[in-house]
What we know:
single chain, alpha/beta, TIM Barrel, 9 helices
Amino acid sequence: MTCQNIERVNARIAAACSRSNRSTDAIQLLAVSKTKPASLILSAIDCGQQHFGENYLQDALPKIELIGNLCSWHFIGAIQSNKTRLIAEHFDWVHTVSSIKVARRLHEQRPESRAPLKIFLQINIDSDPNKSGFDPSDLPEALRDLTSFDRLELQGLMTLPTERKTITEQQLPFRQLRQLQQAHCPDQTELSMGMSQDLEAAILEGATWVRIGTDIFGARNTL
């Protein structure tokens, strides 16, 4: 079923790209494999999937050790300060850099033997007190601070907005993120936004990465 699910998601991406006059080559599918076994990830790799997102270190590290560099590993969960070393050592990308403190620790703990860690700054686009991320007004200062962290390579911005029902409503926070990127970091063109329920709205507003879990691997397992 994994290949069929990936094909269905890619068909949704293609339809959204057609609607927005964008090339499918502009969109990367990040398969969210949190709580799923290595066997399913290997099946997805056999189907051509190359990028996988993990939220929980204790779940991810054994899979990374087993599968290694057959794919690219993205950390997409909340980051605790005591976990930054393991994230810096084992992941290729981090989508959830939500503070300069976290960015500094990732920079300091990234092994010299590895390429700079590719990161997104997480933006709390709705200023939701229950969510992590930079307030939009703090983005210029954060970008200035990042210039001294040469073990990090900023790719762009990421957001996880409050859930909305209609596609028109869903587009609003994604549009705001794109406008922030264009205003403050136009050279860092990646936008990580959109999940199973709102990928169409995200692509319409310029997403370059969509993070899809359930529609590929099924309901999340309990750790």
